[in-house]
Amino acid sequence: MSQDEVYDKAGFGRTVARGERPGIVVVDFSYGFTDTSYPTAADMRDQIAQTRKITDLARDRGFPVIYTTIAYQRWEAETLPWLRKATGMKALLVGTRMVEVDASTGIVDGDPVLVKHGASAFHGTNLAALLTAAGVDTLVVTGATTSGCVRATVVDAVQSGFTVLVPQDCCADRATAPHDAALYDIGQKYGDVTDAADVIEWLKRI
């Protein structure tokens, strides 16, 4: 029995029903992840360009577009357990260029930027409240990294009551294997893995 057959037999990988009020979350497309002059970054230009097609349209249609960044105070960088494991993340300090959202994303004044201290965009932030207040029922999750903060955000989004779509060409990682594995896991258990073209057509219809 193939891997896909195993999951299908167990009842995973079903398609989710999309709602009528989308929201877009762009996870951690900050310079610390996108500018390859930093050791924590990778080349994410293609994924940013595809994401911008979605965010520009969503903003024009009046749907919320929310960005996140990871930023630490110096004292946090020396005390948080996650940063003992992922020590390179200590460089993401408040006030540095590394934690600024990459301008190539097309972010505009008025777009919320949530500062997070862990992988999930929901943990320790008011993201769920912002989405609920905006009436969002379906969350499109993009950003970096696929196997880390994107996946964690997707899991928490489902647990917070949102239907989730993940356009795979809008998600970036430092390596192919974890990127592919995370997308497979998301598609089987948490949300629909799709692409930017599909999301754009859906946004145009609603």
Describe it.
With 206 residues, the protein is of the alpha/beta class. The protein has helices at residues 3-9, 31-34, 45-60, 74-77, 82-85, 127-133, 146-159, 176-189, 196-205, and strands spanning 22-27, 65-70, 113-116, 138-144, 163-167, 171-172, 192-194. The protein has one domain: 3-Layer(aba) Sandwich (Rossmann fold), CATH 3.40.50. The chain is built from nine helices and seven strands. Strand 4, helix 7 and strand 5 form a beta-alpha-beta unit. Helix 3 packs parallel to helix 9 and helix 7 (146-159) runs parallel beside helix 8. The longest helix has 16 residues, at 45-60.
Level-1 CATH class name = Alpha Beta
Distance between the termini: 40 Å
- The domain tally reads 1
Shape descriptor reads: globular
Instruction: Return the average pLDDT rounded to an integer.
Output: 96
Q: In this structure, how is the largest beta sheet organized? A: 7 strands, parallel
- The number of E-state strands comes to 7
Structural class: alpha/beta
InterPro entries: Isochorismatase-like_dom (IPR000868), Isochorismatase-like_hydrls (IPR050272), Isochorismatase-like_sf (IPR036380)
Protein name: Carbamoylsarcosine amidase
Keywords: Hydrolase
Organism: Novosphingobium guangzhouense
